[in-house]
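User: Hi! I have a protein structure encoded as tokens and I'd like to know what sequence might fold into it. I'm fairly new to this, so please keep things simple.
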């Protein structure tokens, strides 16, 4: 049994004694030393890294926002330029149509004037042809009458 008693001496005691306070003080000193030498610098490094990451993230968001704003401005100016181009094209088209209509009206007026002149010319030619036909028909009537009658006819006999 001496073996059992020897084992009991090496066993853990559950009753606190003065070494417990020493152990607590050693643990507290170790926590303080670890805080000062290890945890605080690591926490500072992690915090600065977080700040840089957030700063870069914020910077990236600002750049994205700036790009989006510039893109909207570009699209707005592009729409405005297109609208102006369409308006100018429409304006030119309208001006061309007015010019074409004016030319057509001028041509119609000129054609109407030419037709009126031609009608006058035709009426003059008709009246000249009537006079010529009248004269020629009288001459032919005299000639036919003189051949039928066998003698020359006078103006009084022709009426």
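Assistant: Happy to help. Inverse folding works backwards from shape to sequence: for each of the 159 positions I chose a residue that suits the local structure. Here it is:
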């Amino acid at each position: 049994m001496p073996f059992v008693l020897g084992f009991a001496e090496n066993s853990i005691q559950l009753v606190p004694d003065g070494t417990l306070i020493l152990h607590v003080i050693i643990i507290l000193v170790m926590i303080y030393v670890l805080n000062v030498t290890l945890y605080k610098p690591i926490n500072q490094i992690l915090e600065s890294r977080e700040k840089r990451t957030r700063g870069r993230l914020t910077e990236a968001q600002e750049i994205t926002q700036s790009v989006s704003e510039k893109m909207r401005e570009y699209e707005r100016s592009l729409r405005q330029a297109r609208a102006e181009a369409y308006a100018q094209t429409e304006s030119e088209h309208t001006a061309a149509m007015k010019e074409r209509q004016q030319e057509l009206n001028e041509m119609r007026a000129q054609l109407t004037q030419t037709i009126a002149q031609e009608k006058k010319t035709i009426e003059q030619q008709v009246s000249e042809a009537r006079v010529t036909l009248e004269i020629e028909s009288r001459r032919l009537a005299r000639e036919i009458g003189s051949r039928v009658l066998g003698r020359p006819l006078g103006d009084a006999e022709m009426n």
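A useful reference point when you look it over: Helices lie at 2-9, 18-149, 155-158. Feel free to ask if any position seems puzzling.
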